Amino acid sequence: MLEPGNNDELPPIPGKRYFTIGEVGELCAVKPHVLRYWEQEFPQLKPVKRRGNRRYYQRNDVLVIRQIRSLLYEQGFTIGGARQQLSGEAVRDDVQHSQQVIRQIRTELEELLHLLNQR
User: Fold this and answer.
1) Could you state, in order of their start, the residue ranges of all structural domains in the chain?
2) 4-118, what's its fold?
3) What's the CA gap between 40 and 1, in Å, rounded?
4) Dihedrals phi, psi of 9, to nearest 5 degrees
5) Global pTM value
6) pLDDT at 8
7) Which tens digit of pLDDT belongs to each residue from 44-96?
8) What is the rounded CA–CA span in Å between residue 35 and residue 119?
9) Contact at 8 Å (CB) between 7 and 66?
10) Beta strands, E only, 48-119
11) Using CA atoms, how far apart are residues 66 and 62, in angstroms rounded to an integer?
């Protein structure tokens, strides 16, 4: 998954259930046309499509996109290499994904606590 250092430069993921392609682009620092291309290249990326073929991404999709971004832009993988890396990491991903989700939840809880303490 993402290294902790890489996740710090991206904004925290809000506690919403679905995100539009524009929101995901901002959360992951990737343009919408790149996200549409990645959907074709990475089978792990399957947003829900609704009215008029509009894409709605879930939290797990955002985490996968951040991982793809890290593999391509920061670790220097090719599309094929990143695809292979993602498919080969299935067992390790469960633990790393859980750790990342816990870190994200902790960050969000700390932010909430800070907001509550300001009252």
Assistant:
1) 4-118
2) Multidrug-efflux Transporter Regulator; Chain: A; Domain 2 (1.10.1660)
3) 20
4) -80, -15
5) 0.67
6) 54
7) 899 998 888 899 999 999 999 999 999 999 999 999 989 888 887 655 656 67
8) 39
9) yes
10) 48-50, 54-56
11) 6
